[in-house]
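User: Assemble these into one structure.

Assistant: Restating your components, then the assembled model:
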Amino acid sequence: MTAIGSYFKIGPARLFVHAAVLLIVIIWLIPTLGIFVSALRDKDQIVVSGWWTAFVGSTQTAAVRLGTPDQQKQEGASYVISGNVLEGQAGRAVKAFGNRIQQPAAFKAGETADLGDGETLQINSDGSYRYVKNTAFSPDQRPKRIYASVSAPPEFTLQNYNTVLRGEGIGQSFINSLTVTIPATIIPILIAAFAAYALSWMEFPGRGLLIALVVGLIVVPLQMSLIPLLRLYNEIGNMLGQPSKTYPGIWLAHTAFGMPLAIYLLRAYIAGLPKEIIESARVDGASDFEIFVRIVLPLSFPALASFAIFQFLWVWNDLLVAMVFLGTDKDHIVLTGSLNALLGSRGGNWEILTASAFVTIIVPLLVFFGLQRYLVRGLLAGSVKGG
Amino acid sequence: MLLQIVSALGVVFAAVIACSAYFYFSNKILDMALPVKDGDIRAASRNLNRRALVRPWLFIGPALFLLVVYLVYPVVATFILSFYDRAGLQFVGLANYKWALGDREFRQSIFNNILWLAVVPAACTFFGLVIAVMTDRIWWGNIAKSIVFMPMAISFVGASVIWKFIYEYRGGNDVQIGLLNAIVQTFGGTPEVWISIPFWNNFFLMIILIWIQTGFAMVILSAALRGIPEETIEAAVIDGANGWQIFWRIMVPQIWGSIAVVWTTITILVLKVFDIVLTMTNGQWQTMVLANLMFDWMFRGGGDSGRSAVIAIIIMLAVTPIMVWNVRRANRELKGH
């Protein structure tokens, strides 16, 4: 269809579809956007204004003290203290001011306010002020406290990440998560691929039964396994004189829990490889091991990649298995565990929570956007086939 | 920090090497133990046959071992544990099951689970289908799909932080920094502490899972929609069917199988859902679900393995029909090949 052709197809119904999809996209994007924007904001600003106002700047009420009486200068009959309330704060502007907390914005910037007792105060929007009295300021008078409504330009900072990565143990957790995730992604692929090959191309008694077992185990809830396995781990730990919560322990757990789906997906793919290639290799005297390594493994790359992404996301995002089999001490706690702990301990500190959430989300999102094609292919191979 | 990274890399490397080494050397050893030499033809062919008998089990051995230890054995062990006391030592018969039936929190969890099962799979499938149909018809549909699919990559804990921020509540006259309350306030409503309103708070938690899972439903259903032969739709258009009729009478029946797959997959996920409730409310304000109750009893007061085993068995019972259906479907498929 030509561009002009499709142009003419724009009608109210089509416009409605565009608008509806746009609305859906915005709804789906906004929650995540909130986290990303907030993590880059100053922590004082997060609590006083919604993140959606971050781009237009914010207004906040600041309490400031004017200069001390020893700065006063005599000008004709009156005495003047002058200076700038925004000293050292570039880009900000005073919008209004007041001398009582109840009315922090009683006077507009530039206006001359009559404070009684012969005192007047003028604050300009650039922050410069003139505090005037018709008699001398007494030397023991405390500096005057006033309130100013100050508008700040949009301001973004990386400070929150700095805090989180150094202070809140998120950096350590990041490494822990990687240590859990990488072997727990590679090992199951290797084990499942060998099993999938055996289940598709080797003849042995009980093959059909094994396939049925694998399919049945796909849906077994993880919760089933926790108590008996925890006991088993403790017993083995006691026997070997080792702690029961170790990295190899959780690698094996993740490998096993991912196994049914891995075998199922890979078997569907490997069984579909052309029969001629494998049989002619056999005729040429190649052993099953050689066929697997030299022919099947390279040919199955798309399926391996799609399962690798699944397993990676699944392990990286897991909380339950890590909590049970790796524990929550500092040297082992994974990112999701840290984040969950922060939700409990720093529930109101949104600068900490949002920056931490960003750190946990960024790796899977990069994987997702980089390898989305394979992810979709893997989903379709597993779910649609046969309907 | 650097030392940690290096040592982490070390163990990661060692683990992967060890796994590869198993397959390589087990096959090598088999070949050496049963040699196939040119000299003695009879011995060679006997050894060749023996190799063919053993090798499949070398290939499938590690997988089978893991499946049995981590999935089959626990199902049996949990079932047995459910008849024992809290320490798992004393046989108590059906006492734990009786406790469950009488427990208020357990009934609450069952009720909430049913609520989740009724709402989440249906909502995800519905939204997934609608979005799939709409995005398939516009030129920037793939970009839109990517964005709707994106939450699939985000952990449930991460998603919980994201949505907790949306539901954030500020008391008094403070400015609302939670989007939902800000919107409510803009339209003249009163801000609420959304996640502590009994009954309705369940729905606020469900929204998180729907947000995550709709993309999955959309991808699968979109592929299914593309598989529909165009002739059937063209025929319907010629017969004068409108868009609505085409959708419900022609498209939906043809992708019924895929809808069932999406629905079951999300149903299983809902039964396992744990992280969202843990991070958002930890089961407070009547939001407890079975998976969390089970986890709770695993560690509550030093742990009660009998009671948590009962809850695990209940979850297992709920997925059993799906399991049977799955195996049957796979069998039919294998025979068809």
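The CA atoms of residues 176 and 266 of chain A lie 29 Å apart.
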